[in-house]
Design goal:
The complex is a heterodimer of chains A (about 450) and B (about 325).
Chain A lengths: L1 H20 L1 E7 L3 E9 L20 E10 L3 E2 L2 E2 L2 H19 L5 E6 L5 E10 L7 H9 L10 E13 L2 E4 L9 E12 H13 L3 E7 H9 L2 H6 L1 E6 L4 E7 L2 E8 L3 H12 L3 H11 L6 H5 L1 E3 L7 H4 L2 E3 H26 L8 E5 L8 H8 L4 E3 L18 H11 L16 H15 L1
Parallel strand pairs in A: 1-6, 6-11, 12-17, 17-18
Antiparallel strand pairs in A: 1-2, 2-3, 4-5, 7-10, 8-9, 8-10, 12-13, 13-14, 15-16
Helix pairs in contact in A: 2-4, 5-13, 7-8, 7-11, 11-12
Chain B lengths: L29 H10 L2 H24 L2 H19 L5 E2 L1 E5 L3 H10 L6 E2 L5 H8 L5 E9 L3 E8 L2 E7 L2 E6 L4 E5 L10 E3 L7 H10 L7 E7 L3 E6 L4 E3 L5 H15 L6 E5 L7 E4 L1 H11 L13 H6 L1
Parallel strand pairs in B: 2-5, 6-9, 9-10, 12-13
Antiparallel strand pairs in B: 1-3, 4-5, 6-7, 7-8, 10-11, 11-12, 13-14
Classes of the chains: A alpha+beta (about 450), B alpha/beta (about 325).
């Protein structure tokens, strides 16, 4: 875990350096699209001209100066499948955003949804020798958390202290200077596959960019789509993506659970291809323009020309009714929601004080989805759009960009993670001393 | 035209099916991507946009100019070009017109302006010419300009003679402000102008003119004004009569004297000097005849023309 600590800490330093230079790139690498925002950090932003909306919730210290989006290539189920293709897509989108911004991007913060994320809740406890919690004690209680066996080839993506307790006073967000004898903490750790994240790092490095941070896509979209009260009182954010559906549960402004359902919008498109025997491009068009989940009587008469260029007149003039499209889409959407239900059940969402569920991501734009989801997931459902940030073009504010917007918020105000605290002094010098001793013995 | 018309359906030209257009990869190549990123660096941008062209231009010019002959040719070419433009027909000045000058001044001006026409208007320095002309006393102001059509136009305003000033070196004509206009050899050249005399008289010509105006009724008898001690005026009349005016308020004193003259015909009597130097106490100096009449009536010895008392024998002789 020490190497991980070092790499994450290095990324934090890079992020700090990037903020000082004032320009940071945001790279949301999804299965269906890749979005890149260029953020400019300039002071407090309180004196900036805004169109009717004042500085929002501390998001005013940056503005978007360039944005580009492109069709994703070489991605499958939220993971990089063909490195060279993905690299080309990243180059396309970064070049486009740089062109719009008129300045060079050197540091990017990326997010990705794949890699089989797994959540762990850890807890640790130490005895306070001084009878008072100091900064050092916070670091040591985080280091004292008992690490379970994550399995081979797993990498920690997020390790956020969720809760602190001093003696029997629990629910503290900042325990420093509290008086007590015992300090306990709960930490949420999200692990992903090492290879997946390594591929991402490699891809970004091959584009001459420096990685200033990595986040989970479910976490990022939840930060953009959940309003502050929902984050505080408890809510689940469901991010309908192309290759997978991310689920994250928030309470007390901390993510306490995250998982990924590996069914997404692309599978719905494939269903339409198979069910209606149309090409993939036509199926995508049918899904986005005419899709839905609740069929009405009018949809039977709503005939959609499928079109085609096979040369066969009959095949080219075929029409399908909208009800047909809905009939193909609905079971798959239901299946996704049922999987999400299972994930939420596994997370113990039923025992949360607030049962708010927010749907976001590109798939949440299916008409009637909130009605269907209310039937499967629970009554408190809303479709969430990302928080409004300064300078973002209007066409980039729909729910499919909540991951990118959340990543921008993450870049501006990252939550405390384990590696933001100093490593306790006694844990690592022993090994380096031993290594130095060995080096001396080998060389002399 | 063939005799048989072919009514069979036209053989359809089998066109090859249109190739699906090869879509270019939208992704920039690695090299292009890197070049774009380099181009977005401000330093590179500035160097390539400004530095390199400036360096190339400077180097080309330097190499070309390093040869002595080329430099000379360039200098000569530029000079020739300038000369060619300046000597164009449109810039030639062919004629000089002088307005508002008397023939004497006109002649002097023509002699003075050193341009031999025709000349290019670039060669004519109007400011220097104007300064030179202003050295002529007779010219009050001159408006020199080059008019379209190649005409050098000089509009001259001459000084108006107002006074004659007799001084130690001769007689000068002055204008109303006291500037010299010309010299004359004798008073008779300009009998129409009033005469003033004395040192510093030219500095107070305004007052002199006011006094001459005020002397209206006795003007035919006025010989002139004399400045005494650069301080005050004497009005000299014929018959050697003299009105001595004060330093301050000379005009008022003169008007008082004229009023006296009008009421009592003062100046028609035998009075040599009317002394108004102290305005509150005017003094008259009588002539010899008048004083002798008085003395005779009183039985006193008479006075001679030199003002001294005559001896008895003189009296007997006379």
């Amino acid at each position: 875990m020490v190497e991980l600590y070092q790499t994450q800490r290095a990324m934090r330093n890079i992020r700090r350096a990037a903020l000082q230079r004032g320009v940071v790139g945001i790279l949301d690498i999804g299965t269906s699209k890749i979005a890149c925002l260029v953020l400019k950090f300039d002071g407090t932003g309180t004196d900036r001209e805004v169109d009717g909306v004042g500085p929002m919730a501390g998001q005013a210290n940056f503005r978007v100066i360039g944005a580009a989006t492109t069709r994703s290539r070489g991605m499958r189920r939220g993971e990089i499948d063909t490195m060279a293709e993905t690299e080309r897509a990243i180059r396309t989108v970064v070049a486009g955003a740089q062109k719009v911004a008129g300045c060079r991007v050197d540091h990017v913060i990326a997010c990705m949804s794949g890699g089989r994320p797994a959540s762990y809740g850890l807890d640790g406890e130490i005895v306070l020798e001084s009878g008072k919690v100091s900064e050092h004690d916070v670091a040591s209680v985080l280091a004292a958390c008992e690490t379970p066996d994550f399995g081979r080839g797993r990498e920690v993506l997020h390790a956020q202290p969720v809760n602190f307790a001093v003696d029997n006073r629990s629910g503290l967000s900042d325990p420093r200077d509290h008086v007590g004898n015992r300090l306990a903490c709960d930490m949420h750790v999200l692990t992903v596959d090492e290879d997946v994240i390594g591929n991402l790092v490699q891809c970004i490095r091959r584009c001459d960019l420096e990685l200033a941070g990595v986040a989970s896509a479910a976490y990022a979209s939840a930060r953009a789509a959940l309003v502050e009260d929902e984050q505080e009182l408890g809510a689940a954010c469901i991010d309908f993506g192309g290759g997978g559906t991310g689920v994250s549960v928030f309470i007390k402004k901390h993510m306490i659970f995250s998982d990924n359902v590996q069914i997404g919008g692309n599978l719905i498109t494939q269903d339409i291809v198979q069910g209606l025997r149309v090409p993939l491009a036509v199926a995508e068009r049918l899904k986005t323009l005419n899709g839905g989940v609740e069929a009405t009587g009018r949809d039977d008469r709503d005939m959609i020309a499928v079109g085609g260029e096979t040369g066969d007149w009959e095949a080219d003039r075929r029409v399908v009714s909208r009800a047909d499209v809905i009939g193909v889409m609905r079971p798959r959407v239901e299946e996704i929601l049922v999987h999400v239900r299972q994930v939420l059940d596994a997370a113990g969402f039923d025992f949360m004080p607030s049962q708010q569920i927010v749907l976001t991501g590109g798939g949440s734009q299916i008409p009637g989805l909130d009605g269907l989801a209310a039937r499967i997931l629970g009554p408190n459902i809303r479709c969430g759009r990302p928080l409004r940030i300064d300078g973002l073009a209007h066409q980039l504010t729909d729910p499919s960009f909540s991951g990118a917007v959340g990543l921008a918020l993450f870049a501006a105000h990252p939550q405390d993670e384990w590696w933001d605290f100093e490593m306790p002094a006694e844990t690592y010098p022993a090994r380096s001393l031993r290594r130095a001793y060995r080096w001396f013995r080998n060389n002399w | 035209m063939s005799a048989v018309i072919d009514h069979r359906p036209q053989q359809r030209q089998l066109q090859p099916p249109p190739q699906p257009r090869q879509r270019r990869d939208p992704a920039p190549s690695r090299l292009q991507y890197r070049l774009e990123r380099v181009w977005l660096k401000p330093l590179y941008r500035r160097v390539i946009r400004v530095g390199v062209p400036a360096f190339l231009i400077a180097m080309t010019a330097g190499l070309w100019l390093s040869d002595q002959d080329r430099r000379a040719a360039l200098g000569a070419g530029v000079a020739g070009l300038v000369d060619k433009v300046q000597s164009r027909e449109e810039f030639q000045v062919r004629m000089m017109t002088i307005e508002g000058a008397s023939p004497v001044v006109d002649k002097a001006l023509r002699g003075m302006l050193p341009v031999d026409l025709p000349a290019s208007s670039f060669d004519i320095d109007l400011t220097a010419m104007r300064l030179q002309v202003m050295q002529l006393d007779a010219v009050e102001s001159i408006d020199l300009r080059i008019k379209p059509g190649g005409i050098l136009s000089a509009v001259v305003k001459e000084r108006v003679p107002a006074l004659l000033w007799r001084h130690a070196a001769g007689i000068d004509i002055l204008d109303a402000t006291g500037n010299r206009v010309a010299s004359v050899t004798s008073r008779d050249v300009r009998p129409d102008l009033p005469l003033i005399a004395g040192d510093g008289a030219d500095l107070e010509t305004q007052e002199a003119l006011q006094l001459l105006d005020a002397a209206g009724p006795i003007l035919p008898r006025v010989r002139g004004l004399v400045r005494r001690g650069e301080r005050r005026w004497d009005l000299v009349l014929d018959n050697n009569q003299r009105i001595m005016l004060p330093e301050e308020g000379a005009v008022i004193a003169l008007q008082a004297a004229i009023a006296l003259n009008r009421s009592q015909d003062m100046l028609g009597r035998d009075i040599q000097v009317v002394d108004l130097r102290s305005p509150s106490r005017p003094v008259l100096r009588l002539g010899i005849d008048a004083r002798n009449s008085i003395r005779k009536a009183r039985g006193l010895p008479l006075l001679g023309p030199d003002g001294n008392v005559l001896d008895e024998d003189d009296r007997k002789r006379g």
